[in-house]
Amino acid sequence: MYLALYKGKGTLFNRLIRLWTRSIYSHCELVMPDGRCLSASGMDGGVRAKRIELDLAHWDQIPVPWADAKHIEQLFRANEGRGYDWLGLLGSQILPITIDNKRRMFCSEFCAAGLGYPLPQRYSPALLGEVVRHIHTLNIGQRNEAHA
C-alpha cells in the first residue's frame, strides 16, 4: 500500500493549495493492494474509489506497509459517496480554525483518518506526506538494525 501525493500542475485549485501550503503537493490518495485509489476529491464530488494512472512525473508514492487495509476499507465503506468538505478544507488549511463536518471529507483528512492519525482534519497533503515519509524512514531504519 502507498500514500500517493499529487505534484502535477492540475487545476487552479491545485495551484492554490500548493501556494497556500508552500508545497509541491496539492492532493493525496491511499493506494490499496488491488490498485484502487481511495480518497476524497473535489473534482469527483467527495469520497470515492478510482483507478488512477499514477504517472511518477506527477505523483510521489510513499510505501505504508504498516497501514491497516481493513481499517481503510471500513472507513471507505462508512464514508463512500459523502461530499467533498470545501468548508472544512478552507477552515483547517486556510483559516486558523477547525471546521469538522462529519458528513463530508477532503483528501488529506480521509487519508490521515485511514492511516489512523488523530485529528485528521488538521493534515494538508504536504504535512501528511512529511509525517508518512518520516515514519517510513524510521521503519526502514528499524528493519536495517534488526538485520545487522
Layout of secondary structure:
Elements: E1 2-6, H1 12-21, E2 27-31, E3 37-41, E4 46-50, E5 59-63, H2 69-79, E6 83-84, H3 86-94, E7 104-105, H4 107-114, H5 125-147
Parallel strand pairs: 6-7
Antiparallel strand pairs: 1-2, 1-5, 2-3, 3-4
What is the percentage of strand-forming residues?
15-25%
- Strand order, sheet with most strands: 4-3-2-1-5
Taking the sheet with the most strands, its summary is: 5 strands, antiparallel
Helix amount, in percent? 40-55%
Provide mean pLDDT, rounded. 90
Oligomerization: single chain
Helix-strand string: EHEEEEHEHEHH
Overall tally of domains = 1
CATH topology label = endopeptidase fold (from Nostoc punctiforme)
Radius of gyration using CA atoms only: 15 Å
Number of helices: 5
Cα separation of the termini: 26 Å
Number of strands: 7
Instruction: Find the structural class using helix and strand composition.
Output: alpha+beta
Description:
By secondary structure, this protein is α+β, with helices and mostly antiparallel strands. The chain has a single domain (2-147), classed as Alpha-Beta Complex (endopeptidase fold (from Nostoc punctiforme)), CATH 3.90.1720. The chain has helices spanning 12-21, 69-79, 86-94, 107-114, 125-147; strands spanning 2-6, 27-31, 37-41, 46-50, 59-63, 83-84, 104-105. Strands 4-3-2-1-5 form a five-stranded antiparallel β-sheet. The longest helix has 23 residues, at 125-147. The radius of gyration is 15 Å and the shape is globular.
Features:
single chain, 148 residues, alpha+beta, endopeptidase fold (from Nostoc punctiforme), five-stranded antiparallel sheet, two-stranded parallel sheet, 5 helices, 7 strands, 41% helix, 20% strand, globular
